[in-house]
Amino acid sequence: MSDKLKVGILGATGMVGQRFIALLENHPWFEVVTVAASPRSAGKTYEEAVGDRWKMDTPMPEAVKKLIVHNVNEVEEVASTVDFVFSAVDMSKDEIKAIEDAYAKTETPVVSNNSAHRWTPDVPMVVPEINPEHMKVIEFQKKRLGTTRGFVAVKPNCSIQSYAPVLTAWKEFEPYEVVATTYQAISGAGKTFKDWPEMVGNIIPFIGGEEEKSEKEPLRIWGHIDEEKGEIVPATSPVITCQCIRVPVLNGHTAAVFVKFKKNPTKEQLIEKLESYKGVPQELELPSAPKQFIRYMEEDNRPQVTLDVDYENGMGISVGRIREDSVYDWKFVGLSHNTVRGAAGGAVLCAELLKAQGYITKK
């Protein structure tokens, strides 16, 4: 019998669910034993349920092909087979909240890729290198849910990963005003070019709900726990304004960012802070943690999606073109992998952190 933690994936047939399955193949701590999806997939093997919709570059892992897909709504049954679950279900926000809470109440930790619980005050929304201490709010959440080991933890939106870590590394220079434009890949919508032919050679200057998330979610990550209320209180600075544009790229979100600082850093100081930035995942050498979280690229034409999106197996952030600006103080370009660091990989790293902190254990 394996001593790995037994994992279930909710929404296993969708693009993010598939990414979880690809990333967890041969994981040293976690083993996928249960896959769950909508009632129409239930009862089929995973291979049959996905059919010709496998969207990863790597083949479907043999270990999951013959797993029988559970109905995700049969909460008790799914929960009884696993130590914890990853959630990538495709439902309305209210339905996602309800089903994630239902799993948590079976004493099954839920690590979610969804946005439904990102603003629930006692649910931690974590980038493990930035705010690992926010996991402590789980103790307050467990009191609310009436659980001893069940809880929900979430990772933030994919679009902020290409600039929020950069601004975090520069915190001591006190950034106070930020303008960001993100150029977002189509896999962020769960699509490929085969599914979305109208994106070929096209740009769409609107992604529903994305700009609000991009402006507000970094502030929650930079917030603090109010011990009396038992909730996360968002930071109030820097002020961020954002535009989010869908571009004809499969994987990789790029951000063009302008920053004003209260202090006056040099370019050398900005680069040094990026390259030396480390967090708890690097200190603990968590299995999915990039050795170097953020790298700076000197070339004028980098970072590029085709060359750089898979940096550190898609878990690292690439930054280039730090330049003084005529209106703002400094500007830069950032790149992150939206379905690895920005989605499933970020959630896997959160689960590794939760295991290291003692929140996820064997049932």
From TrEMBL:
GO biological process, alphabetically ordered: methionine biosynthetic process; threonine biosynthetic process
Protein name listed in UniProt: Aspartate-semialdehyde dehydrogenase
Annotated Semialdehyde dehydrogenase NAD-binding domain residues: 6-138
Enzyme class: oxidoreductase
Similarity section: Belongs to the aspartate-semialdehyde dehydrogenase family.
Database matches in PANTHER family: ASPARTATE-SEMIALDEHYDE DEHYDROGENASE (PTHR46718)
One annotated GO molecular function: NAD binding
InterPro entries the record matches: ASADH-related, Asp_semi-ald_DH_pep-lack, NAD(P)-bd_dom_sf, Semialdehyde_DH_NAD-bd, Semialdhyde_DH_dimer_dom
Gene (UniProt): asd
